């Protein structure tokens, strides 16, 4: 079980216009354009549960990646988590009763 409320993050990423997301998330010192394009590929190609699973495990779906995206694979999820947290988009998971 994830420590974050990932379904809400996934829905936000899926339904927010890409230009708005880019303004919120892209930062040359943190989440770059390459990070952003890889994130959007993952969001568009994965159902919510699969996205959450990849996020938790730090794995990737079978998608075609550019050479620049492949270079980011090792730290991609860490960088994404850090940026989402800094922007206030990650919240702790609801505690199961």
Put the structure in a nutshell.
With about 100 residues, the protein is mostly helical. It has helices at about 5-15, 20-25, 35-45, 50-55, 65-70, 75-85.
Describe the secondary structure blueprint for this structure.
Elements: H1 6-15, H2 18-25, H3 33-45, H4 48-57, H5 67-72, H6 76-86
Helix pairs in contact: 1-4
What does this protein structure show overall?
With 97 residues, this protein is an all-alpha fold. 60% of the residues lie in helices and 0% in strands.
Contiguous uncertain segments of 5+ residues: none
Round the Cα radius of gyration to an integer and report it: 13 Å
Order of helices and strands: HHHHHH
Sum up the overall morphology in one term: globular
Main sheet makeup: none
pLDDT averaged residue by residue: 91
* Alpha carbon gap, first and last residue: 13 Å
Oligomer: single chain
Keywords for this structure?
mainly alpha; 0% strand
């Amino acid at each position: 079980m994830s420590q974050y409320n990932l379904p809400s993050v996934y829905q936000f990423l899926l339904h927010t216009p890409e230009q708005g997301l880019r303004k919120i998330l892209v930062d040359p010192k943190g989440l770059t354009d390459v990070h952003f394009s890889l994130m959007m590929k993952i969001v568009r190609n994965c159902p919510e549960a699969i996205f959450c699973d990849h996020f938790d495990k730090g794995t990737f779906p079978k998608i075609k990646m550019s050479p620049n995206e492949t270079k980011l694979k090792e730290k991609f999820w860490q960088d994404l988590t850090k940026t989402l947290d800094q922007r206030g988009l990650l919240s702790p998971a609801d505690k199961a009763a």
